Amino acid sequence: MTSGHPSATDEIDLVELAQALWGQRLLIALCTVLFTLLALGYSYTVTPTYTSQARIAPSSINSFGKLAGSLNFRSPTQGESAIADGVRLANDAFNVLIENLNSHIVRRDFDENYPAYHQVVFEVNRGKQKVGPVSLNATGTEPELSKAFIDAYLAYATATTAVQLNEFLNGMGVAEEVEVSALYRLEQSATVPSVPVKPKRTLIIALGFVLGGMVGVFIGLIRSGSTPLARTLSSKLTPS
């Protein structure tokens, strides 16, 4: 019968392993320091990038009252229906704006007019529901440029959207126009980021430290050649 306690052989193996690693402590320390320094150097050679963020949401329905009236959306018997139509107009106009913000054509035209923003990466994040707030993220190598891009591109896409909607309404024979200010509500304005999103220096240095220690332990075990584990590794690594 076997007991649940480790055998003497296991204890001797652990002691032998610890002694082997202690004998290679300088090598392990050297590998750890070397990999940590390499990770540190890499983290400072990578160009930092900064992300600025703004949040926008559909405008309030009072901006679309006249337009709803011009489109004959008013109901003389159900006040709730008129309000629902106003909400739908606000959401529809907002969705057109979001489509233009995501449009490659609109971004291309913007870059042609404002070439300084060409390298800025822009992303629109919205939830599963198309009526909720939307996050606008701009990432660039200069924090001021990321913030300025959001302000400039949002204004450009909004003006483009207003032109499109008003041309559509004019084609329908509707004289009422959509104001630029009615297309969205600014919930969070873009700010100049103070901390880069990349590189994550702390994480890179920590990974370098851990990897260096692992490599040092592995090489130390191979070099010691005195433990069963080292002999097993050597036999697998040595070609027959």
CATH architecture field of the largest domain: 2-Layer Sandwich
Write out the strand line-up for the largest beta sheet, numbering strands in chain order: 2-3-1-4
- Name of the top-level CATH class of the largest domain: Alpha Beta
Largest sheet: 4 strands, antiparallel
Spell out the CATH superfamily of the largest domain: FepE-like
State the separation between the terminal residues, measured CA to CA. Answer: 39 Å
pLDDT < 50 stretches: 8-12, 74-79
Could you say how many structural domains there are in total? 2
CATH topology name of the largest domain? Bacterial polysaccharide co-polymerase-like
Class based on secondary structure composition and strand pairing: alpha+beta
Q: Return Rg in Å.
A: 32 Å
Quick tags:
Bacterial polysaccharide co-polymerase-like, single chain, 240 residues, alpha+beta, elongated, four-stranded antiparallel sheet, 10% strand
Please render the helix and strand layout as text:
Layout: H1 8-23, H2 25-45, E1 50-57, H3 65-70, H4 79-102, H5 104-113, E2 121-126, E3 134-140, H6 143-171, E4 185-188, H7 201-224, H8 228-237
Antiparallel strand pairs: 1-3, 1-4, 2-3
Polypeptide structure, described:
The two termini are 39 Å apart. The chain has eight helices and four strands; from the N terminus they run ααβαααββαβαα. Residues 8-12 and 74-79 have low confidence and may be disordered. It has 240 residues and is of the alpha+beta class. Helix content is 58%, strand content 10%. Strands 2-3-1-4 form a four-stranded antiparallel beta sheet, with helices on one face. The protein is elongated. It has two domains: 9-45 and 200-237, no CATH class; 50-188, 2-Layer Sandwich (Bacterial polysaccharide co-polymerase-like).
